[in-house]
Write a structure and sequence with these properties.
Elements lengths: L1 E16 L2 H23 L4 H11 L4 H18 L18 E3 L5 E6 L4 E9 L2 E8 L2 H12 L3 E11 L2 E14 L8 E7 L3 E8 L2 E9 L1 H20 L2 H30 L5 E6 L1 H7 L4 H9 L2 H14 L4 E4 L19 E2 L2 E3 L6 E3 H16 L14 E4 L31
Parallel strand pairs: 8-11, 10-16, 11-12
Antiparallel strand pairs: 1-5, 1-7, 2-6, 3-4, 4-5, 6-7, 8-9, 9-10, 13-14, 14-15
Helix pairs in contact: 1-2, 1-3, 2-3, 5-6, 6-9
C-alpha cells in the first residue's frame, strides 16, 4: 500500500553571504506578525480580515506571512475551549521561527561537485542569506532525494534559533512510501495511552504473544508543576512569563513523547506483520463529559500527539495503524465480559463479578487489540490467561520480569525491580 509520509530534517546553517543579524531581524518580524494576529483575534476580527491586514503590513514576502498566519491560527484553533486554558496571547517575546514555502521563502540546490546542498533564505523582503547546509550524511542524502526524485516533495521550512546558532527545519514528503496493508496484518498491537504510562499488548488469532507497560511518570509530574506555576502567574498578572513557561512545558513534553513513541515502534517491530491499534480519541471526547477539569486535561493532555508520533514513526517503518471504538476498554473484564467502572481501581483491574485480576492498562491494551481483530474480521482468541506483563520505566531500557512477584495476588503481573514497579 502506498502512502504519503512527511518527515522533518534538521540542518545547521553555514552562512556564506548575509549574516545572522538578518535572520535575527527576520525572526523579530515573524514574532511581530504573530503577535498582531493574536491581538486582532482577541479584538474580534474575522480571520480573513486579519490575514489581509497582516500581509499588507508585513516586511516578509507575502508567502512567508501567509505561512505565519496559518501557524498562528492553527494554535488558536487547538486552544479554543470554555475556560481558554492555554489560549495564545499577543505577548511572545522570544525568537519566533520564520516559516516559509520552498521557492519564494527559501530555495535549495544540490552542488554535484562538492556533494553539498546550498540554501538561500529570504530573511526579509529583498534581504537574503546564503550558504550551505550541515547535518548527518543520512539527512543530507534524504534531502537530495527529495530534491531530485519525482516521488518526493520539499515542503515548508522554518528558520529556528538554537543556542545562538541557526537551523533550518525542512519538511520533506515521500509521496509513494510503502506501508503494509492493515488487512494483511498478523499481529495486532493494542496501545492504551494514559497520563503516566502506555500499555501495549501483542495479540494474534492464536493468542496473546507479549505485553509491556511503559511508564513515563515525569511527564505527568512535570505538566502538573507547570500548570501550578502558570495558574499562579495568571493570578499575579505575569502573562509574558506565563507564555515562556508554557513554551518550556510544550518543548519538554514534545521531546519526551518523541522518545516514548520510538520505544513503542521498536517494541512493535519484533512481531510478524504488525498493525498498531489505537482508541479513537475523537469518539471518546465527543461521547463522554467528565466535567470541566477532566475535559481540559483530556484536550490538553497529548494523547493524540503521542498517537500521531507513533503512527508516523511506524509508517516510516512500513507498519500500518488502525483506530477502534474506545467504549468500555477500561471497564470490561476479558474473562467474563462483565462491564462496570467498579472493576478498575487505579492501576489494578479486578472484576467484581468473577474476580479476574490484571494490570489495568495491560488489560485495556488487550481489549484494544481484540477490537482491532474484530474490526478486520479476524478470530479473537481467549484473553484471560495473558503472559506476565513487563513494566518498564521510560529511559531505562527494556525490562525483564522480576525474580519474584511482589504483587502475587494479581495474576500474570510482575514488575521490573529496576523501575520500582507499579503499586497494585
Amino acid at each position: 500500500m502506498q502512502k504519503s509520509l512527511t518527515s522533518t530534517l534538521v540542518f545547521q546553517l553555514d552562512i556564506h553571504e548575509g549574516s545572522q543579524q538578518l535572520l535575527d531581524s527576520g525572526q523579530l518580524e515573524a514574532r511581530r506578525v504573530v503577535n498582531e494576529i493574536f491581538r486582532l483575534d482577541d479584538q474580534g476580527y474575522d480571520w480573513q480580515t486579519i490575514k489581509d491586514k497582516v500581509v499588507e503590513r508585513s516586511n516578509h514576502v507575502k508567502n512567508t506571512t501567509q505561512r505565519l498566519f496559518d501557524k498562528a491560527t492553527d494554535a488558536l484553533e487547538r486552544y479554543y475551549d470554555e475556560d481558554e486554558y492555554g489560549h495564545p496571547r499577543q505577548n511572545h517575546d522570544e525568537s519566533f521561527p520564520i516559516r516559509m514555502n520552498h521557492g519564494e521563502g527559501y530555495q535549495l540546490s544540490v552542488d554535484e561537485a562538492s556533494e553539498s546542498v546550498s540554501f538561500r533564505v529570504t530573511a526579509l523582503k529583498r534581504n537574503f542569506v546564503r550558504g550551505t547546509l550541515k547535518s548527518s550524511q543520512h539527512q543530507i542524502e534524504r534531502l537530495k532525494t527529495a530534491l531530485t526524485d519525482d516521488d518526493w516533495r520539499v515542503g515548508t521550512a522554518e528558520v529556528v534559533k538554537k543556542q545562538d546558532r541557526y537551523e533550518l527545519h525542512i519538511n520533506v514528503t515521500h509521496e509513494t512510501a510503502e506501508v503494509t496493508a492493515k488487512e494483511n496484518a498478523k499481529t495486532f498491537i493494542g496501545v492504551d495511552v494514559n497520563e503516566d504510562c502506555v500499555g501495549l499488548a501483542a495479540v494474534t488469532e492464536s493468542g496473546v504473544e507479549e505485553s509491556v507497560v511503559i511508564e513515563y511518570p515525569e511527564v505527568k509530574k512535570t505538566r502538573h508543576e507547570y500548570f501550578t506555576v502558570r495558574k499562579r502567574m495568571q493570578s499575579a498578572g505575569q502573562t509574558t512569563l506565563e507564555t515562556e513557561v508554557q513554551n518550556e512545558e510544550q518543548r519538554f513534553v514534545h521531546n519526551q513523547l518523541h522518545q516514548v513513541s520510538r520505544n513503542i515502534v521498536e517494541w512493535t517491530q519484533q512481531f510478524e506483520d504488525p498493525v498498531i491499534v489505537f482508541e479513537d480519541l475523537k469518539d471518546m471526547r465527543d461521547d463522554i463529559n467528565y466535567g470541566t477539569r477532566m475535559n481540559r486535561r483530556l484536550h490538553s493532555l497529548p494523547f493524540a500527539q503521542l498517537q500521531n508520533f507513533v503512527s508516523y514513526k511506524a509508517a516510516w517503518s512500513g507498519i500500518p495503524s488502525e483506530k477502534i471504538d474506545p467504549e468500555y476498554t477500561s471497564q470490561e473484564c476479558v474473562d467474563c465480559g462483565y462491564t462496570t467502572r467498579s472493576n478498575r481501581q487505579g492501576k489494578r483491574f479486578q472484576c467484581v463479578h468473577c474476580g479476574f485480576q490484571d494490570h489495568a492498562d495491560r488489560k485495556a491494551a488487550l481489549l484494544i487489540s481484540a477490537k482491532g481483530l474484530e474490526k478486520l474480521n479476524r478470530n479473537v482468541p481467549a484473553l484471560n490467561s495473558p503472559p506476565i506483563v513487563r513494566v518498564r520505566r521510560h529511559g531505562n531500557g527494556l525490562s525483564e520480569p522480576a525474580d519474584h512477584d511482589p504483587v502475587s495476588s494479581v495474576r500474570g503481573y510482575q514488575t521490573d525491580g529496576e523501575t520500582g514497579g507499579v503499586s497494585g
